[in-house]
């Protein structure tokens, strides 16, 4: 886009005309991850700040959507998929299949750019870990998390999410 900006420039710093021109000139890719897996990942990154996964989840729920950290804030509020027409939505856990396709579509070579992915092992590990962590939560916490991430679950196909039930 012709207007000079740096990596730190946020989209909200531009006016609507500039935003529309920029978004129209870029290939827009959204990388999404199951919200429950995002919570687990964030908890594991910050081990020690909460004594258990259940207390961490309670802290998340108590913070509310408006005060929540980017690490666990609902994707719909971060990425605005209803306002921005993304060209591609890439799901975590299917990176090896989807990234190769995406690179070919935008005309880039796939052989030299793609790292080695272990999606099958990652999916299995997160399924096992999700089962363990989900079992730590109370029924009320499970319901509150499903409500907290309601729009993410509706907007994206997280059919195997523990929060979808």
Task: Walk me through the structure.
It is found in: Golgi apparatus membrane. Its main location: Golgi. This is Carbohydrate sulfotransferase. Keywords: Carbohydrate metabolism, Glycoprotein, Golgi apparatus, Membrane, Signal-anchor, Transferase, Transmembrane, Transmembrane helix. Its EC number is 2.8.2.-. The mean pLDDT is 81. The chain has one domain. Helix 3 (53-63) crosses helix 7 (139-148). With 165 residues, the chain is mainly alpha-helical. It is 50% helix and 5% strand. The chain has a two-stranded parallel ribbon with strand order 1-2. It has helices at 16-25, 35-45, 53-63, 75-79, 95-105, 119-136, 139-148, 150-155; strands at residues 29-32, 88-91. The protein is globular and about 45 Å long.
Structural class of the secondary elements?
A: mainly alpha
Kindly state the number of beta strands: 2
Strand order of the largest sheet: 1-2
Order of helices and strands: HEHHHEHHHH
Q: Key features?
A:
golgi apparatus; mainly alpha; Carb_sulfotrans_8-10; 2 strands; 165 residues; transferase; two-stranded parallel sheet; signal-anchor; 8 helices; globular
Short précis:
By secondary structure, the protein is mostly helical.
What is this structure's SSE topology?
Elements: H1 16-25, E1 29-32, H2 35-45, H3 53-63, H4 75-79, E2 88-91, H5 95-105, H6 119-136, H7 139-148, H8 150-155
Parallel strand pairs: 1-2
């Amino acid at each position: 886009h012709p207007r000079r900006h740096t990596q730190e420039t946020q989209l909200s710093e531009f006016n609507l005309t500039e935003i529309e021109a920029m978004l129209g000139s870029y290939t827009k890719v959204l990388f999404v991850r199951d919200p429950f897996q995002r919570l687990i990942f964030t908890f594991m990154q910050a081990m020690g700040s909460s004594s258990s996964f259940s207390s961490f989840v309670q802290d998340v729920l108590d913070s509310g959507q408006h005060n929540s950290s980017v690490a666990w804030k609902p994707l719909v509020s971060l990425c605005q998929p209803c306002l921005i027409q993304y060209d591609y939505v890439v799901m975590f856990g299917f990176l090896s299949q989807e990234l190769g396709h995406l690179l070919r579509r935008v005309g880039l070579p796939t052989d030299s750019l793609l790292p080695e992915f272990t999606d099958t092992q990652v999916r299995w590990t997160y399924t096992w870990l999700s089962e363990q962590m989900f079992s730590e939560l109370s029924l009320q916490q499970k319901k509150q998390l499903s409500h907290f991430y309601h729009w993410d679950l509706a907007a994206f196909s997280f059919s195997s999410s523990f929060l979808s039930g």
